[in-house]
Specification:
The chain has 6 helices and 13 strands. By secondary structure, the protein is an alpha/beta fold. It has a single domain, classed as 3-Layer(aba) Sandwich (Rossmann fold), CATH 3.40.50. Strand 10, helix 5 (171-180) and strand 11 form a beta-alpha-beta unit. It is globular and about 60 Å long. Its EC number is 2.4.2.9.
Length: 217
Amino acid sequence: MSASISPKVQISSHPLVLSKLTQLRLHDLPAKDFREGVRAIGSMLVYEASRHLPLADVPDLQSPVASFTGQTIPLRIGLSPILRAGIGLTDAALEMFPDATVLHLGLFRDKVSLQAIEYYSKLPTEVTADVVFLLDPLIATGGTAIAALHMLTEWGLKPSQIKIISVLGSKQGVEHVTEEFPDVEIFIGAVDDTLTEKGYISPGLGDAEDLTSCGGY
């Protein structure tokens, strides 16, 4: 890991994440296995990203044996998948937060300029979440993640209320995001050093969109 990468970037060292990511990199991996791998890594990253969420006591509960005081997360959780990139991570996040609000953002990367272009936003008039997990499987140039962050902050969220969940990124792209939004935490499976002239992470995962119908940039 480069020393220049922000401490807000949490690169996973978990053996399960790294072994799944190795499988995802294989050029001949069937699409079904690719989708399942993305979902598995997403579950583990959301778990890690949730580690420091606050808890509140819930008194006067009853187990089969005795009364007890339980705990709950006293926050409204939002999940913001980038269409179509984040769909592969949405189910994994919903398993952790079944009552979360899903906030779809439609963005795609122009193949020539490599700039992110917005085409859809499903954000309510009022802010409906205290913490939002931005689901973007691949951070290549970082342009799409940055555009999505602008959409969420213009909606009314503070950058510190947003956590990015990403399977893989390029060093250049991740640094681009942290330079623009230094208070946003990023939870990511791995960071590769190289970004090609065409905007692909190397060694990367290839064209994830072909395999999952959801590529991120």
